[in-house]
Amino acid sequence: MSDKKLTISDNRNGDTFELPILTPTRGQEMVDISSLPKQSGMFTYDPGFTATGSTSSAITFLDGDKGELFYRGYPIEQLAEKCNYLEVCYLLLNGELPNLDQSEQFNTQIMRRTMVAENLRYGLMRSFNHDAHPMAMMTGVIGSLSAFYHEGMDIYNPEMRMLTAHRLIAKMPTIAAGCYKHNIGQPMQFPQNDLSYTGNLLKMMFGNPCEPYEIDPVAEKALDILFILHADHEQNASTSTVRLASSTGCNPYAAIAAGVAALWGPAHGGANEAVLTMLDEIGSVDNIDKYIAKAKDKNDPFRLMGFGHRVYKNYDPRAKLIKTVCHDVLAKYGNDPRLELAMKLEEIAVTDEYFVERKLYPNVDFYSGIIYAALGIPVNMFTVMFTMARTVGWISHWNEMIEDPKMKIGRPRQLYTGKNMRNVPDMSDR
Ligand code: CMC
Description:
By secondary structure, this protein is mainly alpha-helical. The protein has helices at 36-40, 76-82, 85-94, 100-111, 118-124, 134-148, 158-184, 197-206, 217-230, 237-246, 252-264, 271-282, 288-296, 317-333, 337-349, 353-357, 365-374, 382-402; strands spanning 5-9, 16-22, 30-31, 60-63, 68-71, 74-75. It has two domains: 5-53, Rubrerythrin, domain 2; 74-406, Citrate Synthase, domain 1, CATH 1.10.580.10. 50% of the residues lie in helices and 6% in strands. Helix 8 crosses helix 9. 40% of the residues are buried.
């Protein structure tokens, strides 16, 4: 740690406080404010954590101004080109890329754990209403895994943590495909462990027991790349939710379910679903101006979905890669007029003063929905796809947090703005 310090003074009485400055491997320096309450008797105030680092982490780094993203030091572009999703999972969990042996072993570790308990498949999953939103089912079913894996769960045992990671990564596609099949009234498919991770998912979603299912390598590869791009994104809302929930020492499956719930929101993972709904609503290139005006109107709640990001104030690097995949997929699956609409919308938005001034660029979700739609994945399953991909990120952060000797329960403070102390009047006086 460096001996750089930030000195702040209280202009009410001239008191000064010295706070250590922390220097990261990359990115912005941070002021360690943890001693401020002791020194000054004051807490810090930062709604929405726009200026606050909640933890140190060695997993993912992103530079929002430059539009760059790295997992364990590797640029996302190189990972998308040279690795498959399970290799990236290994990297996120273990810190290094696997060699061939390690990759094969990891593949086996994951693919042999794809089955879920029969009473979960036949009992719990089938008990949802047929039209339940798959993210509602996912939240419940993932949480219910804590009932299957609670006895003997020792989160301080590194092997048990790795086993938990493997189980979650392995079972997500089985559960996700099961939710889809439940929605459309078809029998849930068993996983087939000799397939690739995304090939198995495609088969469980689109196969049926009555006829053979042939996996399309274009779809398999496109999903694999999308999963790599969504695998982690440092301290986003859902990852922070998983960290906060897990800081209590709770069952990890329950904590991941909390992350699933956080991801569902339209400001986070739900945006990919919202983008397609928006494109359908806009309908034609002729209506774009009207919707751009709505997005700029402060009295209109409408926002251009898939635009803007809390951290990226430049083109989201994931959006760039996804745009390429989108063209590859549509070359095979036929054009979708929504792609033309999306590209036109992007063209207008990135030159419009309102968006330029606020640095609002397309984010990861702007094009991903068009790919999913081309592959025949229904809109309400889009955030489920994100959930599967992000599971490894959540569990890597959980693992990192539990093994950190400085881990503390997360407990933010508040600026109380309610009534001052008052006495409870008798009923006759109320
Ligand atoms: N359309 C129109 N105006 C916008 C948009 C948008 N999509 N996003 C931000 N703005 C405006 C906002 O009104 C504000 O204007 P002003 O300064 O005049 O008040 C300014 O830009 C800054 O916005 P903010 O809400 O303070 O920014 P934020 O960092 O709190 O929010 C965001 C980030 C992603 C929630 C927001 O940009 C948004 O709602 N985007 C649409 C939803 C979306 O695509 N979400 C997916 C995020 S990427 C996937 C993920 O990581 O989960």
